[in-house]
Design a protein that fits this description.
Glyoxalase_II_hydrolase; Clx_II_MBL; 255 residues; Metallo-beta-lactamase, Chain A; six-stranded mixed sheet; alpha/beta; metal-binding
Length: 255
Amino acid sequence: MTLTSIIALQDNYIWVLNNDNDQCLMVDPSDAIPVLDLIAKKRWKLKAILLTHHHYDHIGGVLTLLTIYPDLIVFGPPETSYYGANILIQHGDNINILDMNFRVIGTPGHTLGHVSYFSYPYLFCGDTLFSAGCGKIFEGTSQQMFESLKNLNRLPEDTLICGSHEYTLSNLTFAHALYPEDSDIRGYYYHVKELRTKNIRTLPTTLAHERKINIFLRTKDIELQKKITINGSCLNESQIFKLLRYKKDQFQEDI
């Protein structure tokens, strides 16, 4: 199985898995045109789509693709039923496609019905987990997002994190401002700055790497609590996460 990424719209990733039989599946096709271009170039057969949530920059190309491929299987949570999903899934379901088994993991927070798909080593996590950051909370609660990230953080350390946006530099800018003395964050921040000047992509990443540089996965750190709390107040991990997400929202817009 081969993993490919397509950049669409401004900074969206459309993820593609293809097998030796030239069959492929797409994750969150925000735009049909680059998908169709790649399929034609590679002579692939599009068999299925996986949708993580209902936002337009994740489902925008689905209906067009369905007009061209009317037998296309489109998996998605109930919130995507009006946007082309024809097989509705939920947390705990298993999907078998292209000789792969995907476990559906409910990851609410960004939206109420957001899901992620895991088939070792690939994790397609939409707008839940990014490199060095996490998604904004629109429909859900900070507690839901916190629990979603905890669940994803239980996966194997060599899991490939396939988030849906190129936000790594933005996220690291915040993390570096908060943790200027952290050598892992500082080193990766300058590395990513150089990569992005050359328009080199920073995804996928690994869970092991994210545990070092993603401060939203480091809510147990005593040092983090000291940095973001006022008057030494004692907060639990969920409260620390909520405050951290709030500070990121105020620091710089991302999603």
